[in-house]
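Sample 1 of the test manifest.
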Amino acid sequence: MNCSYTDLMNTMCRKVFLDAPNIGDLEKEYLAKAVDSGFVSTAGPFVPEFEKKFAGYLNVERAVSTQSGTAALHMALYELGIGEGDEVIVPALTFVATINPVVYVGATPVIVDVSDETWTIDPQEVRKAVTSKTKAIIAVHLYGNPCDMDSLTAISQEYGLYLIEDATESLGATYGSEQTGTIGDIGCFSFNGNKVITTGGGGMVVSDDEEKLNHIKFLINQAKDKSSGNYHPEVGFNYRMTNIEAALGLAQIERLDEFLMIKRKFNEIYKERLKGTKFIRFQQEHESAESCWWLSCIVFEKKVDIPLLQKKLKEKSIPTRRIFMPVTEFSPYKKYKRAKLKNSYHIYENGLCLPSSTLNPEKSVYYVCKVIKRLI
Ligand SMILES: *Cc1c(COP(=O)(O)O)cnc(C)c1O
């Protein structure tokens, strides 16, 4: 049978989803308001309202919305004055959108390995990679799991580096008493369709530095100086979020706690049910951290043919995704591979991301565990 999005909760249409967004009545209500108001583009009340709600959730003063997480990262690097001749340390194991903005600003990416336990950038590798040209570190909270922020903060202070957080996958994750994204100099979020919350496509920048945030807000609006008759004193960008997107975002942030509870529960079920399988290993949290478990992913510590397993799971209607391919595999970044990056490659080659969409009922998660155990 043909199932529309609204039929998903109907048992006849029930499927298992990897990372599909959870859009309900509240989202439809706000979207209708945005459309009915005529403010479908970048003007309109939902943009400041969403920014305010988002900042409040993170317990920061201000947040600036952008067109995407990639745009947020681009603006973070640009605003910090990073450019030609500068080096930026990034992890090998991440989505390529972490590293592309480093090249947009003309800087050189320095690619280091991740920790085998947390799968996030290894502070010891970062320390080894620092040179006189290093300007910043991008800490990626991979799959929602916070980096070792104590060590990264110490290194950035010791060498006078900026610490940028790629929190695009980690909304709601915490480190100590702080939300990820609010610890470094600038934090970047994404609201792409598959992230913890979605605006269809969008992003957010947060920082304690009010001046920098105001300047980013100005830059992303074509650097338009409204006070002097729409004069453009700098090269600007068009990286704004639309009112329609922000309407969706406002509804989603109001439901964030609900999503986080479900994702944590799914991770508990996966761990409990697959724990007995000695050769399955989970991403570990740093002792001060709590992941938001955007995606629950595993690594097999025995030889498993991952593509074949994925095919067999798909036959049982279970969608999965491979771990990110290390960025050093892509043509533009091959030349930056200076070390073996053993952990990144091991996790990529032997890992798998499991269905984590909040649309899934708990019993689907039990079903996924049962099928995996049977297949391997
Ligand atoms: C999604 C993502 C981004 C980019 O966000 P977009 O909103 O898709 O541009 C950047 N880094 C990581 C690690 C991501 O997962």
